[in-house]
Amino acid sequence: MSISASLASLGIVLSTIVVFVPNMEFISVTIFLVSILFGIYYGLMVAVSISVVYEFIIIAIIGSAGYLIFFKLICYVSLAVISGLMRKIFLRLSYWELGVFGSFFAIIYDVLTTIGYQIVVIRSDFVFQYLLVLLGTGIIFTITHVVSNFVLFSFTKTMINWIYSAFKARGIKQLMIPSIYDEETIASVVSEGGKT
Predict the structure, then answer these.
(1) pLDDT tens-digit series, residues 27-72
(2) What is the pTM of this model?
(3) Alpha-carbon radius of gyration of the chain
(4) Which listed site, 111, 116, 151, 182, has its alpha carbon 20 to 30 Å from 166?
(5) Closest among 15, 32, 176 to 93, alpha carbons compared
(6) DSSP state, residue 54
């Protein structure tokens, strides 16, 4: 629990450092890592805690906060559930494939929060043409988000190996995954059919 809280704090701090860089964030990669390392339960706790703390404390300092929290929670909770349920598959993906997954999440996140912006902030009915206009005007921000998520998610394999090695060196057996480079262990875990 304290490890996932530490990782959640790290996600908040790193996202706060880059808060003035539009659409670059470390929250999604932190949720992804925690869900893969510790499972869905911890992933969900981190997703909700990071979202609430970041939205109502950090964003409140620099602007209006709370309007899109529902849509952000949908995205982050979905990410935690998907990455927690499919972590054995994610462990077998290449750096490139993990980056593509991160980019895909960024696109889904931007579309859902833009729909939320249209409904909650502008207070208009959902109109697909207007959504396209909003997405078109913010395309540079979406591109920034897609590229930054690609880079961050492509490094998750390295981060998981580093965290696993650090835990193994200290004799901590709390992680729920095998080392990514230990093919024999991965094969046995995958063949167990989700008994972690």
Answers:
(1) 999 999 999 988 899 999 999 999 998 888 887 787 777 788 999 9
(2) 0.81
(3) 18
(4) 151
(5) 32
(6) I
Q: How far apart are CA 162 and CA 156, in angstroms?
A: 10
pLDDT in tens, 145-172: 999 999 999 999 988 888 878 777 777 6
DSSP letter, residue 66? S
Around Cβ 134, how many Cβ atoms within 10 Å? Answer: 17
Residue 42: both structure tokens together:
């911890």
User: What whole-number distance in Å separates Cα of residue 34 and Cα of residue 48?
Assistant: 12
Tokens coding 34: 């925690």
Instruction: State the Cα–Cα distance between residues 118 and 112, nearest whole angstrom.
Output: 10
* Residue partners of 163: CB distance under 8 A and separation at least 6: 33, 37, 175
